[in-house]
Amino acid sequence: MGAGTSGRVAMLDAVELYPTFGWPEERSLFLLAGGSISVAEARESAEDDTDAGRAEIDAVNCGPQDVVVGLAASGSTPYTLAAIEAAKARGALTIGIANNPGSALLESADCAVLLETGAEVLAGSTRMAAGTSQKIAMNLFSTAVMMRLGKVYRGRMVDMKPSNRKLVRRAVEMLMQVADCDEASARRALEETEFHVKPAVLVLRGLSAGEAKAALDRNGDDLHRALAELG
């Protein structure tokens, strides 16, 4: 969550987690100062609305099972600070990402991440170096988390949702590479598993679709562990 460019960067990463990693949409929310209208329309005054920051954290029922990532180049955006403080009060783990050393956001968050990009080429325009560094940081953070959750196998997005022709083709090619099989076998396995790549890998190892799902369930949906169990 954040305001202005920082909020849009947070949004860009959040909305990609479902199609890329199959992460549940209800578990990946973004809060943008000024609401959805701020995606395409600059609403600079919204970043000063501390009441909105607190209210929006309350509205999503944030709690101890949640992680809240706040982005602010200055590290002092009132909306973002209020939201982080409200999330901490509700027991969430908070992460602050800022480009200004010693800033209030870094002091307030449980985990502080300083992106020390220095002065902007265009003074004060934090959509440039600061915004770019935040996008890189969010890409690294979310990808690392999803890897630890078992949603990546051999550098491939094995939990992606093949929701169009391009992604269906990608799922087929991914399975051919991971399971070392031909296209026809890959398609059959994917059709048996409703085009879910991870159970399809296990189907190609001789399991039924039901057995493949059960094996993944036993192993925390981790394909590495499910394959190790098969020996």
Automatic annotation (TrEMBL):
Domain SIS intervals: 1-151
InterPro entries the UniProt entry points to: Etherase_MurQ, MURQ/GCKR, SIS_dom, SIS_dom_sf
Gene3D superfamilies assigned: 1.10.8.1080, Glucose-6-phosphate isomerase like protein, domain 1 (3.40.50.10490)
SUPFAM superfamilies: SIS domain
GO biological process: amino sugar catabolic process; peptidoglycan turnover
PROSITE patterns per record: SIS (PS51464)
Keywords: Carbohydrate metabolism, Lyase
Source species, domain of life: Bacteria
A molecular-function term among this protein's GO annotations: carbohydrate derivative binding
Presence of the UniProt keyword Nuclease in the record: no
NCBIfam families, per the entry: PRK05441.1
PANTHER family assigned to the protein according to its UniProt record, in alphabetical order: GLUCOKINASE REGULATORY PROTEIN
Name of the molecule in the record: N-acetylmuramic acid-6-phosphate etherase
Organism of provenance: Nitratireductor aquibiodomus RA22
Gene that specifies this protein: murQ
